[in-house]
Amino acid sequence: MKGKSAAVIGSGIAGLAAAIRLAVKGFDVTVFEAAAEPGGKMGEKTILGYRFDTGPSIFTMPQLIDELFQLCGKNPRDYINYQKLNPVFNYFYEDGTVINAPHGAEKFAEEIASKTTEEKETVLRFLQACETKYKLTHKVFLERSLHKPLNYLNYETLYGVLNFGKIQAFKTMNEANHRQFKDPRVIQLFNRYASYNGSNPFSAPATLNVIAHIEINMGAYFPVGGMYSVISALYKLAAEMGVDFKFNTVVSSIITANGKATGLRTAETAYPFDIVVSNMDVFNTYQDLIPDAPKPKLTLRQPKSSSVIVFYWGIMKMFPELGLHNIFFSRSDKEEFHYVFEKNRVFADPTVYVHVSSKVNESDAPEGCENWFVMVTVPNNSGQDWDRFVRLTRKNVIAKLNTALKTDVQPLIGCEAILDPRRIEAETFSAFGAVFGNASNSPYSAFLRHPNFSSKIKNLYFCGGSVHPGPGIPLCLLSAKIATDLVK
Ligand SMILES: Cc1cc2nc3c(=O)[nH]c(=O)nc-3n(C[C@H](O)[C@H](O)[C@H](O)COP(=O)(O)OP(=O)(O)OC[C@H]3O[C@@H](n4cnc5c(N)ncnc54)[C@H](O)[C@@H]3O)c2cc1C
């Protein structure tokens, strides 16, 4: 294999993982990245002494990161360490209820039973069903290409097919959660997991309840040094494995000949390669890099996921009632998701996520201060007046936090940066500024994302949140594994 060359377009987490895996396979790997730094959506910025992770903050399944180091014969602990979170989330409701959600089904169910009208046993039964869904789907769906017929001929898939009813693919998350629980606060808590992949719990299949299992039963973690430490560690590993990085370099097209990818072009140069892996959003890969190739129209036409507005605030005070992850719920998730997915507008009372990494990584904020990452779910970019929506959202978020925290947040904001769908689109080449590729709002779009290979162009592969098996750090890492496992 030595001497074969591979190009990876993009150094998002999936691009880095694909580059490392290809280097392990013996390829000479070059990563082309438009930005000046690796990481894509998983970035980092520092303003006036406050450090912010710009994208992901909820981190599960760290074993998938460790696996990359082990593949390279390295000890992951020499590069990156994680802390297991307990409690995982603080949930604040409009009626004053506060749930401090601990790790582990037993303790979680006890906390829910003590703060709501649900029985502990009901919560445990629900989490057990989420675990069953995970067991039925992860080998079949998350760890393999669904687009290769041979992958259906094995015990796990047969078992999955025989138990298909249990994954509740044809029931929505909200229907399943409603059937299980009577307390609207608990339904809202579990519905919220749809936003982890930019979907609508009122239409997304209840199979997505596996996310609750991954976070509550398997556990959430936080990397020592913050989320960007994961990117720094993978970048270091890739460089040690001989991967060459070309930053500030936009790929303008993929070169093809006789139905094969044979290289790529930047503004200055054409580069020959034996294989090409695109970590660029698959919609934009087709549109911009291979405009003449036949397009998988049905997949590319699926509605896109939601996007986000994030306020990065340096807060000149400490709030003991906040933890690392905090949710301030909307009074109506039904209306909120209706605004985001049907009306394409921002909702006046959004669910607000406040992530404060300085709670565990003290150096992320000056003494006596906190770094708040304040995020709400919004529609993807279809040309709305985002300046107005950002202004409105900022006002509504501050009003909501003022009430919940019984304080005036505005004068505490010492510095600010803002992310909105336009910037996500421009900075990471994500179609329509959607954070998670296609929305998983139907069984088709949830299970049949674009494959990790091109069926029309040989030697062209895809990884990242816009393709199979989906978005978020764990699935992006699995997309890189599936794509590179397909490389012969
Ligand atoms: C605000 C926010 C919060 C999130 N929260 C979470 C969370 O808590 N937990 C979680 O698991 N996930 C979260 N996510 C989702 C997660 O960040 C993404 O699913 C994941 O990081 C996507 O990685 P990726 O490998 O698909 O590539 P991306 O991060 O999208 O990176 C693609 C890279 O390719 C480069 N590129 C694209 N086109 C070209 C080209 N033509 N030439 C050169 N370079 C190119 C881009 O510059 C970019 O660096 C969040 C995302 C955002 C934005």
List the SSEs and their pairings:
Elements: E1 5-9, H1 13-24, E2 28-32, E3 44-47, E4 50-53, E5 59-60, H2 63-71, E6 82-84, E7 89-92, E8 98-101, H3 105-115, H4 120-142, H5 155-162, H6 173-180, H7 184-191, H8 210-218, E9 220-223, H9 228-240, E10 244-246, E11 251-257, E12 260-266, E13 270-272, E14 275-278, H10 282-289, H11 297-301, E15 307-315, E16 325-328, H12 333-343, E17 352-356, E18 370-378, H13 386-405, E19 413-419, H14 421-428, H15 443-447, E20 460-462, H16 473-485
Parallel strand pairs: 1-2, 1-14, 2-10, 7-16, 14-20
Antiparallel strand pairs: 3-4, 5-9, 6-9, 7-8, 11-12, 12-13, 15-18, 15-19, 16-17, 17-18
Helix pairs in contact: 1-9, 1-16, 3-4, 4-5, 4-8, 6-7
The site of flavin-adenine dinucleotide has 36 residues, from α1, β15, α14 and α16.
Please sum up the structure shown.
This protein has 488 residues and is an alpha/beta fold. The protein has helices at 13-24, 63-71, 105-115, 120-142, 155-162, 173-180, 184-191, 210-218, 228-240, 282-289, 297-301, 333-343, 386-405, 421-428, 443-447, 473-485; strands at residues 5-9, 28-32, 44-47, 50-53, 59-60, 82-84, 89-92, 98-101, 220-223, 244-246, 251-257, 260-266, 270-272, 275-278, 307-315, 325-328, 352-356, 370-378, 413-419, 460-462.
Description:
This protein is α/β, with parallel strands linked by helices and 488 residues long. The chain folds into three domains: 5-42 and 227-302 and 440-485, FAD/NAD(P)-binding domain, CATH 3.50.50; 102-218, no CATH class; 306-428, Guanine Nucleotide Dissociation Inhibitor, domain 2 (2-Layer Sandwich). 35% of the residues lie in helices and 20% in strands. It contains 16 helices and 20 strands. The chain has helices spanning 13-24, 63-71, 105-115, 120-142, 155-162, 173-180, 184-191, 210-218, 228-240, 282-289, 297-301, 333-343, 386-405, 421-428, 443-447, 473-485; strands at residues 5-9, 28-32, 44-47, 50-53, 59-60, 82-84, 89-92, 98-101, 220-223, 244-246, 251-257, 260-266, 270-272, 275-278, 307-315, 325-328, 352-356, 370-378, 413-419, 460-462. Strands 8-7-16-17-18-15-19 form a seven-stranded mixed β-sheet. Strands 10-2-1-14-20 form a five-stranded parallel β-sheet, with helices on one face. Strands 5-9-6 form a three-stranded antiparallel β-sheet. A hairpin with a 2-residue loop joins β3 and β4. The longest helix is centred in the first third of the chain and has 23 residues, at 120-142. It starts with a strand and ends with a helix. The structure holds flavin-adenine dinucleotide. Flavin-adenine dinucleotide (FAD) is lined by residues 9-15, 32-35, 40-42, 55-58, 250-251, 279-280, 308, 310, 375, 424, 428-430, 435, 464-465, 471-473, 476.
